[in-house]
Each structure stands twice: as structure tokens, then as C-alpha cells.
Amino acid sequence: MVLLLRVLRLSILLSLSRWSLATESHPLYTQIPSLATFTPATGSAFEFSSDIDILVRRNHAFTGSPTAFDFAETFREDLLSIASFTHINPVSLSSAKSSSSREVIFINVDPRLNFTLFNGKPTNEGYKISINQTSITISASAPIGAWWGTRTLLQQLVVAVANGESLSLPAGEIIDSPGWEVRGFMLDAGRHWFDTTFLSELCAYASFFKLNELHLHASDNLWNPAFLYGEGNEGWKNLYAAFRFQPPPGSPLAGLVPRKNESWTQADFHTLQTNCARRGVTIIPEIDTPGHSLVINQWKPQLMVNGEPDHLNLSHPETIPTIKSIWDEFLPWFESSEVSIGADEYDAALANDYISFVNEMSDYIHTKSSKSIRIWGTNEPSTTMSVSKNITIQHWDFPGDDIPVELMASGYDVINSEQFFLYLDEKTSDGGQFPQELNQDLIWSGAPDGKGWAPNIFSPTDPTNNTSVDNPHLRGSIMALWCDWGNNATTKLEIYYQLSRSLAVFAEKAWAGSEVRETGLTRDQFDAVYPLLNAATPGQNLNRVVKVAKGNLVYNLSDPHLPFTTSIPSVGPPYTLTFNVKPSSRSPDTGILFSGIDSVLHVSNLTFEATGQLYSLGYTLSQDEYTHIAIHATRDYTYAVINGNSDARLYWTTLMDIWGDYMAVGNMSFAAPAQTIGGGAFSGSIKDVVLQLGE
């Protein structure tokens, strides 16, 4: 792959990446997250080949969902991709690691095995890998542990391929398990639409770094005070708000989802959950109430707090039955053992109403489905009531949130999503409040003692607000990417660009902590190996990498017969697309110039379409002569040079409404629409089409 070839130049840095516990003759490569222990052994290395057998121990091969056999089949597909083998024998069952071939990978699920988190609690996500010349045995107490073991093997192979070395692993034993049970990322799907194909690819990407949850914030609204608040104001009726689960035809909840093109059917969501689960990632769905509930109040205005249409009136007799009816409809969709009801940023003057609602919904959801709930931390000032300790609190803010160390001391389970460390917000943030990717300085050295962030760190300045890594009530951490400016602020691939590196560095800290283990990564080690792993993560192609036959040229078409279809659905930036175009006078301003799976370039005003939004360049093509256009794209911008006038670059931009206070302009990055040339009602000529990698 082209991107993989590009990062080969980093291989010189990988001298930094030999793992510290490995001897010179028995090396393991650095990987993300780092491994707990590796003990080298005497003997020859295990050599991978296409003759390899992948065997699953028969005893527990089909226990759980996904099963060890399911995971083994996905591992086989990934191994084919990374090792570039043309064939690997089908996965089979065995009572022992015997095989007719020389090389065997044996997956052994044995519930008697014990692995623990940092707090000493048992975890089913640990694994042991035993390596000798003829076999690799992955042992775990549950299928998910074996799955994480396969990620370790594949990461070792990725670095070997990038380094031009043999596909082998040294003899020895790896023992590894996570420090915390919750290692996830949240995506704001309430304000920005994401299709399930994209979300499935995100799961595959996150899984490679051993993240195990995708928290989907699936209902919300844009926040614009001028529209939301004020006596007699009705602007809230048209403010963007969305609920992403689509009720079945005829459901009494149909009015809850006015944007059916921006919602998931039950079949869509089932496929998403299955795809993610087969890669070890659980979907945690969130339906946010009683705040952030404009979409519900647009459907049933009688339920809103007077003057606050994004808040539910919990005293109205229809409110709680309506919320329960929503959960009744969608709880059967959800395969996770936990769900989130949101429950943040509600009116502090209504503290008792809020606490009563949260506790009632916790009991109701558990009674209906045996699921427990999570809520965002919200310090509601009540002296007579408290939130049930059966509910997990997801901390996100000082000082408006409850103090997490006090919550844990009182017996609450807590997940760390502290915004100072773990929040991202689309393309432009209010006053630069949040970075475009996780702040690397904070992650590597932002704790009060100068060490790196870890899930036990809630404050960068006050050690008393932090806890120990082994606190029994610290469940782990979830980083968050919010979409406060809505659909038009970013494309879905731009969201991936924000997440890609952030997820990997977060994964290191969420699994291994920060300087807890001697084998934890340094920043230099991470920086050296991350590009290699990013380029080769199996099960997805969010970088939209394409294979080219020679140099950087994707294709060169002198006079394609329109519409012309290629074998390339999309090309990720950086790229340059040049062409000559002359629309016919019969339809000078209609039709499509180029289209692909991620973007479309329309004739009219040279308008890009991506993620359902339109971004116009405002340029009208001549009907009388050819116009030469060169489109240049990076992950930060896309611009056009018209007729060779490089001094007059025209950038595709977007306009974002920041909190209803001011409008901000942002550059747009588009993947190249490489699949079809010409289309729709286009009439005219497109010729001399050249698409090449690099700006």
C-alpha cells in the first residue's frame, strides 16, 4: 500500500522500538498498547507462512458471542491482509495443537485461567501467548482475551513488514492484560450524521489498539441561545435536532425521527453491533434526557420546560411515560449490558426531580432488560436525595460535575472522561477550547507530578482530585469527540482524521496506564511505530489508500467516454486531480463531474457534496472553451487552481455557527471522488483526467 511505503522511511526510528525486556537476539517490536511482559526463551523463532493452520480448541470454541471460532475467522482474514498471503487454510477445531503442517496457531479458551486488572479484579480480556519454532498458542479465559492476543500478533507482523524483515516471532512467552475494564471513545452522532458503514470501520480501527467500547451519543440538538430561550421565541422549532434510531413503520414514535435519511433502522444497527462485536468493540447507546431533549420536545412540545425547550418538564404527567415508551421500543435493539441515559446539564433548581427521574429510569431499564445505566456526571444540589449507587457516573467536568474521588469514596463506580484531557470538538472550537487531536503534551506529561495522563488522573494541577490506579471504583476511561457545530462543519473522514492518532495514544494509556509498567511506551517509541500501525490497520480503509502500479499515478485518462467508471471508489488526501472540462450549452450548470463513495463534485458552482452537505466554490464554468482545473487536497484543506493561475487559489470552505454568537469559516478536506467521471445530467466533455497522490 502506498501509505505503508511512505512510512517505511520511518523504519530507521524503529531502533528505538525494540521492546526493553527483549534481548538483542530475541526482539519484539514496540506496539500500541504496550505489552505487560515478554520472557524470551531459547530456540528458533516461529516463521509465518501460507501453510499455517489456525486451530481452535474444541472444548470452548463456541462459547459466548462472538465465539472463539468467530474471532479466529476474523483473525485469519486479517492475517491474509497483513502478511499478503494468497491463501491460509480455513480455521478448524482441534482438541490439541497437533497439525499436519509445520506451523500452527492454536487458540485455547480455558475459563480456569486468571488475569486481573490493576485493582485486582478479574478480567476476561487478558491473554498469554506461548511461542516456539512450530507453534503459537494463545490462551485466555474467554474469547475476547484470545482476540486481543491476535491483535498483538498482527501488530508484530505489521512492523516486520514495514521494516522489510521476516514474518517471524521470537521464542518466548507474552502475558498481558488491561489495567482497566472500560477503554472507549464517544462519538456525537446526535449533532452529526454517521452511517453504520463508517462506524463499523471506526470499530475495526479502534479494535486494533485494544479499545473495547464505542459510546454513541445518539440524540441531541445544536445549542443556540437565541433560538432556544426567551419569552415568545419559537426559533427552537426549526433548530437542528436529531434522534438516530428509526422506529419501525406504524410506530407511535414515528414523529420522533423527522430525518429518516439520517437514522439507523433496526437492521442497520444490528449489523453495526455485530460488525463491532466481531472485533471486540461493544456499542454503548445513549439517549440523552432530561436535558439535551429538544428533539423530543419538537415532537411533543407539551413536555418541555416553559422557556427551555431543550429540557423536559419532569413534572408533566406525560413526560416519564413518553421516555419509558422510547426505551421500550429500542431496548430490544441494544446488545450491550449497559446503556447511557445522558442526564447531564439539567436545571439545578430541579435537583430532586432530576434525581428521582434518574433512579426511576435505572430501575425501569434494569427491570425491562437486566441492563444497568450510565449517566454523565452532574452535581445536582439536593440535601434529601442521591443518585443510586447502581449507576455508573461518567465524569466530564470540574467544577460543575461531582468530584470523582468523592464519588468513588462514597461507593460510586466512575468512568473518566475529563474534558481537560479527553475532549475533542469537530473542526473549530469556541476560542480554541478543545484541540483537534488529543494534546500530546498533556497525554505524555500532563499529570501534576509531570508524568503522563492515565485513567486515574482527573486534574492536571490538583493531586487531591486524582486517585490511585488500583481504585476498585475506577472502571476506566472514555475519550469524546463532540460535533457542536453540526453536519456541515466536517465530513465523516475529517472526523476520522481527528480520531486516528488520538485513539491510538489514548489506547496506550487506557490499557497500560502511565509509567505504571516499566514496559510502557515512551513518546518517541509511540511516534515511531504509530504511522506503521495506522497505515496497516486491518478491517477498514479509512485512510482511503489505493494501490498504484507505478510512482504516485492513480490514473491518467486522456479522453474517457462519459460516464466512465473506474475501479477506485475514493482516494484519501493528499492528492491532486487535474482535468479539462467544457459543459454543453444545453445543460451548462447541471450534472456531475466526478463521484465516489465519500464525495461528489457537481458542475454547478463546482460544488462538493460530502456527508449529505453541499460546499460551493462559487465558480461558473465556461461553455465556450475548456477550463483547466487542478484540485489539490490535504487533510486540512481542498483548493482549486483554475487555468494555471496558482496565485488565485480557490478554497472550499464551510460556515459554522459558533454557539449562536458568531460565524466561523473553516477549510474543508474532501476525499477524491474517483469512481465515476461524468454523470447525472452532465452534457459536455471531460478530458485529460489525471489523479495522482500528493498535493
From TrEMBL:
Belongs to the glycosyl hydrolase 20 family. The keyword Transmembrane does not apply. Keywords: Glycosidase, Hydrolase, Signal. Its EC number is 3.2.1.52. Residues 32-176 form the Beta-hexosaminidase bacterial type N-terminal domain. The active site is at 345 (proton donor). Residues 182-513 form the Glycoside hydrolase family 20 catalytic domain. GO terms for molecular function: beta-N-acetylhexosaminidase activity. SUPFAM superfamilies: (Trans)glycosidases, beta-N-acetylhexosaminidase-like domain. GO terms for biological process: carbohydrate metabolic process. Residues 1-22 form the signal peptide. PANTHER family: BETA-N-ACETYLHEXOSAMINIDASE (PTHR43678:SF1), PUTATIVE (AFU_ORTHOLOGUE AFUA_2G00640)-RELATED (PTHR43678). It comes from the Eukaryota. It catalyses: Hydrolysis of terminal non-reducing N-acetyl-D-hexosamine residues in N-acetyl-beta-D-hexosaminides. Transmembrane segments: none annotated. This is beta-N-acetylhexosaminidase. InterPro entries: Beta_hexosaminidase_sua/sub, GH, GH20_Enzymes, Glyco_hydro_20_cat, Hex-like_dom2, HEX_bac_N.
